[in-house]
Amino acid sequence: MAESGDDTERTEEPTPKRIEEAIERGDVAKSQEVNTWFVLSAGALMLLMFGPSTAESLTASFRGILANAATVPADAGGLTRFVVQVAVETAQAVALPLMMMALAGVASNIVQHRLLWTTEPITPKLSKISPINGLKRVFGKEALVQFVKGLVKIAIVGGVLYAILWPQRERLALVVASDLATLPELALALSLKLFIGVIAVMTVVAVLDYLYQWTSWRKRLRMSLREIREEFKQSEGDPHVKARIKSIRQSRMKKRMIAQVPKASVVITNPTHYAVALQYEKGMTAPVCVAKGLDALALRIREEAEKHDIPVVENPPLARALHASVGLDEEITPEHYKAVAEVIGYVLSLRRRWRPS
Hints:
The chain has about 350 residues and is mainly alpha-helical. The chain folds into 2 domains: about 210 residues, no CATH class; about 110 residues, secretion proteins EscU (name from scop). The protein contains 13 helices and 4 strands. A 4-stranded mixed sheet has the order 3-2-1-4, with helices on both faces. A hairpin with a 4-residue loop joins strand 1 and strand 2. One of its GO terms (biological process) is bacterial-type flagellum assembly. It is a multi-pass membrane protein.
């Protein structure tokens, strides 16, 4: 029961590994309102920079069309060429502003998160066509939030448009009777006012929506304590398995050391807390440590030495020093040469004394 509750209660912040996996799947914090803000800002900037020249180009083009309307061929081929020509001239006039607005849309995604190349969002999955999951997406909490946000946004933007256009109602009513040459200038001025008003509102909307999306994304990635433990086991290894492996290694090392004790020339002890078995033969530059241990292992080394008639010499300071400074299958350090030589010399003298005639 505890494990089940732990798994469902995701109260812990996501780990860096969990966040990175989500980003690789294409699951990132992204606000559509930020994209809208970038596109609108780019549109306002393009209108301010290229609006007059674009308006003049389109005005000249359409004025020529209206002036020469009587000469437009009525046959199918001529009419097609005429439509294509008008479309090309219009596209040339608005191509640069539209391209800059498209680049602004790409930049908005880069600002929110780094560039990603993943096929995860478009990979076919049964969950994407599941009716139950579809109903959850349509009538779920997120869908309700998006619906309310859309209504609020429409109301606010509509209010801004009303506040800008209502004072111009009389001027707009006279447009029908005005000279067409004044129409582009009026349209440009009103368009800039509308863009500025809408961008001011969308700035607040975009910031609030991004904070909401980021908070929702982090909440969606939260983990339970069990998930954190499982991730730790996967990345660092199961502590129980690591402890078992360590225990097996230590057991094998102890067995190998005990098997090496019969090769020793002498065992130096503390007398029971430390034991260091040294091997020395003619031709060696210095004695080599073939086994060492503490407490129970030291007792095993001593028992094995006595079983094979290996001399056991009690020298507590030397035993502690050798245990701390010499590794297995390593020669003793030079500072211990004299003390070990005295011990080995003492052992050799005992052997000569007790050797049969």
